[in-house]
Structures are given as structure tokens and as C-alpha cells.
């Protein structure tokens, strides 16, 4: 079984032979929940691509341990970069979407308040919901043993999403009525891919027109219609396989 991953603030300047301390909530999880003991392997990451690999050198109390670093690795950004613009689902299905996309390997997630979204983020609710999405990405990043956690951007309007699509090397709107399968679309070898996942009620004609003007064509995933909380994960997996990032 691979070593568990824990998040730290920074690994700048860390070298093999150093000893690091893990405390706070991450230390408590390591000591009191995972019950790690001296000699067990662990990985510490900053979530930005750096990882310190080592073994537990000592455990103190219920929330503190020291790690003897044996190796330090830096993970280069993967390309093409995959961003999913995720329309806001109902209930906790937004966190489900972020969790599974993170585990699959998405690079960035953009919350989008589409016209037909039942859920709308406003005021204090917006801040709390965004915090939940970001916390979910962090936890799923650790669970899936990633060194680079996906960025969860601030919520975007349709106009902002269109601007993001216009800058992409490949832009697509997942749509059941798309004439071209995403599985056969021409993809760039590098640069950025941006996918739009609409709400349960679908992407409105006005939104489709705005995205088309930005260069994003509608593509379909397959014969079945997926829920908004699962479509992004399926599309990400397809693209990771097609671009060679899963090879």
C-alpha cells in the first residue's frame, strides 16, 4: 500500500536528511486517526507539486510527529492542462463532483452559476460553499496520493467562462445533442483544455451561443446522459487517456 499523504505549508529548502515536524490538524489526523508509528512511511506535500518522502522518526502526544526525510521530489505541471467548468449541482453533489474529478486527475475546477442552476451561491452561502469545494479538493488530493492538488477557482459568470474558453487551446461544452463525440475530437498535445459541464436543466441556448462565439463547440460523451456531478469525471478520464497522461 502506498504511503499516506499529508499537507504542509511549505517544503522550500527541504533536503534529504532533514527532519520535519507535522502538527496541527494534519498531525492529529496522522497520530490519532491513522495511528502512524515510528518507522512507517509518509509523504508530506505542499499541494503545489513538491513532496518530501520519509519515515516517522517519532510521535509526541496526540497531534505531533517528526518525519526523517529520505527523498524530495518535484512534480512538473502535466500537459495539456485540463480545467472543468462545473455548473453548481444541488445539495452535496458539488462536493462529490470535485472529489471524483480530483481523484481522476483534473487540474482545475471552476464553479459556474449557470442560468438553469437550481442552486445559487450568494453572500455568506457562496463563501461557505466555495470553502467546502476547496476543502474537498485538498482531502481528495491527499487520498489519491497527489502532489499537485487541483485549483478551485472563484465562481465565474457566463461572461467570464466565455473569456476562459476563448483562451483555451481546446474548448468544449458537454452536450447530449452535440454532433461530435468527445472521444474523436482533435486534441492538442500541450496547452490547455477547458470543458463546460452544464446543470441538470441543461445549458441554455443563450449560453451555448456565448460559448460558441468563444470557440467552444458542443460534444457528447456517449449514448447515455450523465448527471452534472458525474459528467466532468467521465470526460476528464476520457481526456487523460486520449492525451497520454494516463500512459
Automatic annotation (TrEMBL):
<dbReference type="Pfam" id="PF20260">
    <property type="entry name" value="PUA_4"/>
</dbReference>
<dbReference type="GO" id="GO:0032259">
    <property type="term" value="P:methylation"/>
</dbReference>
<feature type="domain" description="Ribosomal RNA small subunit methyltransferase E methyltransferase">
    <location>
        <begin position="79"/>
        <end position="239"/>
    </location>
</feature>
<dbReference type="InterPro" id="IPR046887">
    <property type="entry name" value="RsmE_PUA-like"/>
</dbReference>
<dbReference type="GO" id="GO:0008168">
    <property type="term" value="F:methyltransferase activity"/>
</dbReference>
<keyword id="KW-0963">Cytoplasm</keyword>
<comment type="similarity">
    <text>Belongs to the RNA methyltransferase RsmE family.</text>
</comment>
<keyword id="KW-0698">rRNA processing</keyword>
<keyword id="KW-0808">Transferase</keyword>
<dbReference type="InterPro" id="IPR015947">
    <property type="entry name" value="PUA-like_sf"/>
</dbReference>
<keyword id="KW-0489">Methyltransferase</keyword>
<dbReference type="InterPro" id="IPR046886">
    <property type="entry name" value="RsmE_MTase_dom"/>
</dbReference>
<dbReference type="InterPro" id="IPR029028">
    <property type="entry name" value="Alpha/beta_knot_MTases"/>
</dbReference>
<dbReference type="InterPro" id="IPR006700">
    <property type="entry name" value="RsmE"/>
</dbReference>
<keyword id="KW-0949">S-adenosyl-L-methionine</keyword>
<feature type="domain" description="Ribosomal RNA small subunit methyltransferase E PUA-like">
    <location>
        <begin position="22"/>
        <end position="67"/>
    </location>
</feature>
<comment type="function">
    <text>Specifically methylates the N3 position of the uracil ring of uridine 1498 (m3U1498) in 16S rRNA. Acts on the fully assembled 30S ribosomal subunit.</text>
</comment>
<dbReference type="InterPro" id="IPR029026">
    <property type="entry name" value="tRNA_m1G_MTases_N"/>
</dbReference>
<protein>
    <recommendedName>
        <fullName>Ribosomal RNA small subunit methyltransferase E</fullName>
        <ecNumber>2.1.1.193</ecNumber>
    </recommendedName>
</protein>
<dbReference type="Pfam" id="PF04452">
    <property type="entry name" value="Methyltrans_RNA"/>
</dbReference>
